[in-house]
Amino acid sequence: PETRTYGINGVEVVGWGLEYKTWKVDSTPKGLIQDILKRYGNHPLDGWYQTKESTAAAWLDIKEKLLGAAKTRVDIVKEIMAKEQFDFSLIAYGETHFAGHLFWHINDPQHPEYDPELEKAVGQPILEIYKACDKGIQEIIDMDPEATVLVFSNTGMGPNYSGRHFVGEVLGRLGYRAEKVEREAPKTSGLPAGDVFAVERIEKIVGQRNIEKIKSLIPEKIWDTVTRKFLNMGSDWKDCMAFDIPSDNTGTIRINLKGREPKGKVDPADYDELCEKIAEQFRALTHPETGEKLVSEVVRSHLKYPGDHSIDLPDLVIKWTPGKDITVMTSPETGEIRRDHLPDARTGAHQDVGFFLAVGEGIRHIDGQSENLEQAYNWDVAPTILQYFGLPVPADMDGKPMQDILDE
Q1: d(CA 320, CA 244)
Q2: Whole-angstrom distance between the N-terminal and C-terminal Cα of the chain?
Q3: What's the CA gap between 259 and 265, in Å, rounded?
Q4: pLDDT band at 150 (very low <50, low <70, confident <90, very high)
Q5: What is the DSSP letter of 26?
Q6: Pairing mode, strands 149-153 and 242-244
Q7: What is the C-alpha R_g of the chain?
Q8: Measured distance CA(340)–CA(156) in Å, rounded
Q9: Which residues touch 309 (CB under 8 Å, ≥6 apart)?
Q10: What does each C-alpha distance from 183 to 173, 174, 198, 297, 400 come to in angstroms?
Q11: Rounded to an integer, what distance in angstroms lies between the CA atom of residue 277 and that of residue 144?
C-alpha cells in the first residue's frame, strides 16, 4: 500500500488512507487518482495528527470516520474492478490498523486506561470496523465468486505494553549514559533535551491540535527534517557510550561507535563485547515482586539483518515479555526503577502473530484443527502467490511457497 510501481500492466492506487505516507498519493493511470479524489475525497483521517482523545464524542467521531472510510475504500475498489477482468488484485485496508492502535483501551478491561462508561458510550469500535471490512471483502468476492481469495494480516494487535520508557534510565544506571540530568536542559536552554520522549513533552506544551494545524501548513519533507533536528537538540549522546533512540514498541539502543557516530567514544575493537554485555544486563531485568523476566529477547540487529544498510539500524533491539504493563523493574546492577505506564497516544500495538486465510480453487480444504500447518511468515505470501500462478520464485526472495495450503 505504500510502494509505487512503474510500468505495471494494470491499475494501481497508492497512499489513500495510510497512517504515515512514505509516498505521495498516486496512481496508474496517472489521472485516476485525481478522479478518485474529486468524487470520493481524501481519506477522513488524511493529515490527522494521532491524538489521544478526551471525550466519548471525539472517539465516536473517529470511529464513524473509519467506518465510512472502510466503505469508501470498497466502493473505489469495486469501481476499478468493474471496468475490466484482472488476473490478480491486492487491496489493503488501513482502517483496521488505525482501529487497533487507537481504540484498544476502550474494550480491554485489563488495560490501565479502560473506562466502562467510555465503552458504553463508544461501543466496540475495533470489532465494528473489522465487521465493516469483512462486509466489504464479501462485496468484492461477490463480483467474482469463482476467484481464489487470500485474506491476511501482516501483524496482530494487542495492548501497547512496553518498557521502552525505561531504557534511557537503565543505561544511565549501568554507566553508559552521561551524568547530565536530561530534564534540566529545557529549563536552562529551551531545548527539548533530545531523549526519546521529547515528542510527548512538546505535545503537552504546544497541544496536539495546534501541532496538527501547524503541520498542515508546512511541506512534509521540511516538517520531518526540521522537527527531528529540533527534537535532538540538547541531547547528551556525544557524551555516552550507548544511548536509546526513538522506537515503536521495542527498546532500541545505539552504540556511540568511533568512526560511525559524529562524536564516537567506543573503539570498534570493543564493540561486540559491549553489545553482549549490555544485552546480558537487559536480560537480567525482572519484576521486583514476582521475579518474572521482563525482557524476552535482545536482538543484535547487524547479526540478524546483515546488509549494506544495517548501519542505519539500532545496534540492540529489546523485546519485552508480551502482555505485561511494565511500570517497575529491577536487577542487581540497576536497582529498582519505577515509572508510570508508557506515555504513548496509541493504546494498541503490533503483535508478532497475524493471520492468513485462503479459500478457492487450488487451495486445500482443511477441516478445522484436524491437521497442523507449518508456521508461515509475511515474506512467504508473495512466493505462494507466484507459485499459485505457476510463475518462478526469484532466488533473492527470502520466503518460500506455503506448500501445505496448496493442492496438488
Answers
A1: 15
A2: 32
A3: 9
A4: very high
A5: E
A6: unpaired
A7: 24
A8: 25
A9: none
A10: 16, 19, 10, 30, 49
A11: 57
Distance, CA of 64 to chain centre = 23
Kind and range of the H or E run holding 407: none
- Tens digits of per-residue pLDDT, 336-379? 999 998 888 899 999 889 999 999 999 988 776 656 677 889 99
- What does the alpha-carbon distance between residue 76 and residue 324 come to, in Å, rounded to a whole number? 40
DSSP state letters, 65-92:
HHHHHHHHHHHHHHHHHTTS--S-----
Q: How many whole angstroms separate alpha carbon 275 and alpha carbon 83?
A: 56
pLDDT at 182 (0 to 100) = 44
Cell of 159: 495492548
Nearest to 195 by CA among 234, 252, 248, 242: 234
The pLDDT of 149-160, averaged and rounded, is 94
Determine the 3-state secondary structure of 132 from DSSP.
Answer: helix
Q: Which three cell numbers stand for residue 198?
A: 521529547
Question: Tell me, what amino acid is at 351?
Answer: Q
221: confidence class by pLDDT, cuts 50, 70, 90: confident
Average pLDDT, the chain: 88
Q: How far apart are CA 95 and CA 185, in angstroms?
A: 39
Cell 461477490 found at: 142
Supply 223's cell numbers.
516538517
Task: Identify any residues that bridge with 363 across adjacent strands, giving them in sequence order.
Answer: 406
Average pLDDT over residues 279-298: 97
With CA atoms as reference, report the closest residue to 247 among 303, 175, 320, 192.
Answer: 320
CB 364 within 8 A of CB 405: yes
Q: What is the mean pLDDT of residues 92-117?
A: 95
- Listing DSSP states for 36-65 in one string gives HHHHH-S-TTTTPPP----SHHHHHHHHHH
CB 259 within 8 A of CB 155: no
pLDDT band at residue 395 using 50, 70 and 90 as cut-offs: very high
Whether cis (ω within 30° of 0) applies to the bond prior to 29 is yes
